[in-house]
Each structure stands twice: as C-alpha cells, then as structure tokens.
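User: Hey, quick favor. My workstation is busy. Could you predict this chain's structure for me?
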Amino acid sequence: MTTKVKAYPNLSLDINDMVVYTEANSKLMPITALFVDIGGVLLTDGWNHDARALAAKTFDLDWTEMETRHRLNFATYEEGKITLEKYLERTVFYTERSFSVDKFTEFMFAQSEPYPLMIDLIRHLKKKYGLKIIVVSNEARELNLHRIQKFKLNEFIDGFISSCFVHIRKPDEDIFKLALDISQCASNQIIYIENTPMFVQIAEGLGMKSILHQEYQSTALQLAVWGLNHQEH
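Assistant: No problem, here it is.
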C-alpha cells in the first residue's frame, strides 16, 4: 500500500519500505519526547460545545444563557482559579434546579471516552524508544483528575502540564515553555501531537516538530517519518 505522508505532502511511501526510511531518518533526528494533548488526541474532549448542548437538552436548560455564562467563566475554571462547584454555581445553579450538582457533575464526567488506538500507540512508542511523554493540555482540575484516573493516563505519562495546575493555558506560549523546562528536552527532539492548528503552529515556532492530529493512521505514519515506527520488525 502506498500512502501520502501529511508531514511531507509530496512524499509517497510504500508501507513495506517504511522501516528502511524511518531508520535512516531517526539517526539524523532522534526523538526523545512526545508532547501530547489529551482532548481530541487520547480522549474525546472533556466539556466541549456538543457536550454542553447535550447537557442543556438533557436537563432542559436555557442554552443561550448557559453558554453565555460558560464563556464568561470557563477560562478562569480551566486555569484552576475557581472550582468545579463554583463554575457550576455560576453557569447552571445560579437559580434553583430540579436536579442536583452531583447529578450534573456525573453527566459531565460521563462525556469522556478514550481513543484506545491512540493510547496504545503512545504506550507502545514510550516502551519501545524510551520516550518521555508529557501532556500539554487545557483542562479544568476536577475533569482533568477524573480523566487521568479513569483512563489510567498516569501509567504512561510522565508529566501533566495541565492549565489547571500551572494557571496558564494555550495559546499562551508560556505553557509550552514550561513544558520544555520541566521535561528538560531539547525542542528539536520533541514531537507535539495536537488537534488544534493554531497550537501546532505555536509549538513549531518554539522549534518542536508537530503533528496536526486527525485520526490514528495518519498520526502513526507521521510519527514513523520521524523515526518512531509502531510496527514490529
């Protein structure tokens, strides 16, 4: 099978020749770490537009009012400056409801689902190549902790540079610089996997290689181009 590799759009590689190409490439540009986003890469987004719209429908909420209040508060919540309880007090429970905070929180947490192929891919590459795996993610504290624990992300991720822990969020360059400082990895030996184009560009501006993640197969092929081949040979 011949496929176009997105990192190099004019390059067609036969999958059977990938090993030869990637081994040569890895000697020139050894990769020591992967920086990864959580939502949209390893898991579904935690509390995105679709999840909020479903919540409004499920709990019979005024969508326009809820979304307006969300936009005013979510950045502060993601930066770890208010709790989930306070966020919900401002966005949902500013008036009496027929359902409890616990019921709504349970619904929020239930929206998270894993992408098993991506999780297995990162686990495998870490073990095979001895990589550091660092999360760089915009997530609120309670949701982030729930996702880490439920999907056992701390079993293979070495550090979580989550906005709720460091009190800055993407697109602020400082969150990437902090990840570089904490990981102590050279930027040109890092691949950043992210599904938001602007954040990919910011990482590239700091000297990192990056992959605009769309789905498992294309990301696995792009990783192979930079010497991280998930296939055994």
